[in-house]
Amino acid sequence: MKRHLFLSTALVAVGLAAPAWSQEIPELEEVVVTATRIPAIVSETPGARVIDRATIEQRGAIFAADILADVPGLSVVRSGAFGGVAQVRMRGAVPGKTLVLVDGVPVNDPAEIAGAYDFSGFELGDIDRIEVLSGPQSSLWGSDAIGGVIAFTTQEVDGLRAEAEAGSFATLRGRLAAGVANETWAFGAWVSRFDTDGISAADEADGNPETDGFENTTVGAKGRYAFTDTVDIDGAARWSNSRADIDGFPSPNFTLADTLDTTESEQWSGFGRIRLNALGLDHQFSVSASDIVRDTVSDFSSRFEADRQVYRWQADGRSGEALNFAFGVEREETSGTLSSGLEDDLGTTSIFGVARYDATERLNLSGALRWDDTDDFGSETTGRISAAYRLDGGFIVSGAYGTGFKAPSVSQAVCDFCFAPLPYPELVPETADSIELAVGWASSDGRIEGRSTVYRLNVENQISYVAGRYINVAETRSDGVELEGRALLGGGFNLTLAYAWTDAEDRTTGARLLRVPEHAASATLGWSGERLSGALTVRAEGDQDDSGGFATATREGFVTANLNVAYALTEAVTLAARIENLADERYQQVLGYGEPGRSGYVGIRLRY
After folding, report:
1. CA contacts within 13 A on the Cβ side of 339
2. What is the value of pTM for the model shown?
C-alpha cells in the first residue's frame, strides 16, 4: 500500500508540474446544480458536485460506475467487472440510502432488499450531466435520500450522432442518435449497444478461468413543445435491457467460484410534464413512472418485479430580487413482487417547500422542509438549512444541517424469507441527521478552485436482518473529510483532484462498516488541443473491510490508471482510443471479484 500511495503522490506531482505555456487561459465556469429544485451555485452548496458531458467524454466513461467512483465520499461496490451488481455508498451509508433520479424520475428498485439501484447496466451515451448531492436530501426528495441523491439528465439531440468501438475481450460498442431542436420544439431518439465476452466474475487468479459475458441495450427518446411563451410540455422515456453471466457460491464449499449462473434485467423509466405560468408562479404538473424486472438463473433461481409512479405539482416563484422559492405536493406509489411469491403495495403523500434568500451580496441562506405521510409506517417531517458566505480573497465558507428518513422496503415490510417465530417486530422508518462545514477558494484569475468539507452523518433505527427477521436495531455514524480541486494549467491542460477520508462505524457493534474504504483518491490530468484531447485518470483506494464467507476479511487497497485519447480528423469525425488499467494492476473492488488487467479499445465518433 505504501508503493500505491507513493505512485499516487508522484502522478499528482507530475500533474501539478505540467508546464503553463504562454497563451490566453479561460476561466473556470461557475457551475449550477438543479437537483436542489431551485438552481444553486455548486461552490455555495455543501456536498454538491456536477459531472458534465464534456468530462464524461474526456475520461472515456462508458457506464456510470466508471466515473462515479471519482466523486469524493462515494464508493462503488461492484461484484464483477462486466454486469456484476454495482451499487454505491455515499458517505458510508448503505446502497439503499442513495436516491437515483433519471430526468427527475426515481428509479431505485423497490424489489431490492433495501431498495438500492444497480448501476451495472447504466450506460452514459445519452447522459448530458450527472449531479451528486451528498448528505440527507429527504427534505427535497423524500425517502431513500439519507446518503444523498444522484441525478442524471439525458441529452437533447440536435443532428446526427454515431459511435462505434471495439477492443479487448471481444468487446463491441455502438451508438446511434438523431434529433432536431429549436426554440419552439425538439425531438430526439437514440439507441446504444454494448457486448463483451468479459472476464471471470470470480477472480481468475483464484482458479476461475471461465469468462462471463455481458450485453446491454439502451433505447431512449426525449421531446418538448412550446405552445406559447407561458405554456409548454416535455417528456422523455428510457428503456434498458442487460444480460450478464455471473458466478455464484456452489455446494459443497459455498465459496465464490465459476458457475453457469446468469442474470437479466429489463427497466424503463419516463415522465410527461406540462409547465405554465399563472398567478405569478411557474407551475409544473408531471407524471413519472419506472418499472423493473430481474431474473436470475442459478441453483436458487429468482424473479423480481417492481414499479413506481410519482404524481407531482410544483410551483416556482420569486419575491423581489433576493428570494426564490418553490413548493408542491407529491404522491408516490410503489409495488413489488418478490421471488418468494410475497408482494406488497406502498405509498406516500408529501408536501414540500424550499427557498433561497440572498441576504446580502456576500451571504445567502437556503432552507427546505418536507412532510411525508406513508400509508403503512406513519409520517415523517424532514428539513435542511444551509448558508454560504463569501469572504475576501476568494474564500467561501458554507455549512448545512439536514435530516432524512427512509421507509421500509417491500422486502422488509413483508419480511421476505423470514423464519423467526411470529409475531415479527413492527418496523419504523430509519432516520438520519447530518452536519457539514465546507471552505472553498477560487483564485482571482478564475483558473484554480478547491473545496474542503468535513461532515458527520448519523443513522438511527437502521433496519437489519437478524435471527431470521427484520428489526430496527443498528445505529451507524460516518465522520469524513472530502477534498477536491481543479485547475486550468495552460497549454490546454487541466487538473482535477479528489480525496476522501471516511470513518464509518456500526455503533451497535463498534465495527467498521463493510465495503467503505477509509481512504480514496483520484487525480485526472486532462488536455485539450486544436485536434488532440484526452485524460489520464489515476484512482486509489485503501484497504477496506469486506465479507469473506462467514467472517470479516480485508480487501486490499489498489491504484489503477486509465488513459483516454481522442483525435479530431475533421469537425465531424473523431478517432478515439482508451487504455484501462494502464499498469496492468491486479486488484479487486469487492473481495473475491476480479477486475480486468490492461485492456485497450479503439473507436470512431461521427457528429453531423
Report:
1. 12
2. 0.94
